[in-house]
Amino acid sequence: MSDIERPVVRPRRLRTTPAMRELVAETTLAPSQLVLPAFVREGAEAPRPIGSMPGVVQHTRDTLRKAAVEAVEAGLKGIMLFGIPEAKDAVGTGATDPDGILNLAIADVVAEVGDELVVMGDLCLDEFTDHGHCGVLTPEGRVDNDATLLRYADMAVVQAEAGVDLVGPSGMMDGQVAVIRDALDAAGHSETGILAYSAKYASAFFGPFREAVDSSLEGDRRTYQQDGRRNAGEGVREALLDIDEGADIVMVKPALAYLDVLRRVADAAAPLGVPTAAYNISGEYAMVEAAAERGWIDREPAIVETLTSIRRAGADIILTYWATEAAGLLRG
Ligand code: PBG
To answer: What is the CATH T-level fold of the domain 29-331, as seen in this structure?
Structure first.
């Protein structure tokens, strides 16, 4: 072999042993960066499995408290709560009822784990409306942006009164972060923060979530969520608007089909000192679980690879249904 043909530069040297690979790893993934989304169902006497999300349940108030304790023990730092009410109506009354399931669950979890977990509440009407939309409707059946903002303002204050640390507005109404910030401040809750679902795309991957919250939605959310395929710049615009309006953390959702958007949002938010979160959503979870169940992929490495890819694309924080288990995998 002549010198010319022999490789002089050998990247494989940095892959030789596990220690070497650890030493040169660029991307870190730690339990403290993971947030567990959890569902709690009003009136439930036992946890109810969600068929399209094997391993995820609709909790009772009691089992939710236990899940929160397990999250703390696993080293997670956050939990995002979703409520499933017994009764729904056109304006989502259950969302602003201090005795509504989500608000009770927030208080339960705060009482159970206190400051050990950042307690977050989904701030959206879709779980509470009989039509399943994220807002209230005009007489013609369109989602009424500004009337919805008034409902979100009330919802934020009720969640803050229940003790929530971060509200998570996920309805993609224009101006929602500003209105919520105002309402919280006016009610004396200036310490309650906002994790804004800023770049949220109308996505087919939300499918299993609809089962998870017994959604009554017919049709889609394309007049308020972002274009499900094509617009990345719009995601950056939405995130910057939310930061202007007072968002403490911005989020991109879904994660996997939008890793480019995540990178761009994180690059825009980081210089402003604003952390970026990403939501590894129900359909992303279901795909891995379904393939693993069939023996088509190796489940645990696939989970770690999925979450690492989201970190590598720029997420400081990841919401994932695997959070508690993944924390164990990362430690083990
Ligand atoms: C709205 C909301 C949704 C999700 C989180 N918040 C549903 C939607 O926008 O259709 C989806 C989460 C997931 O799919 O895992 N309340």
So the answer is: TIM Barrel (3.20.20)
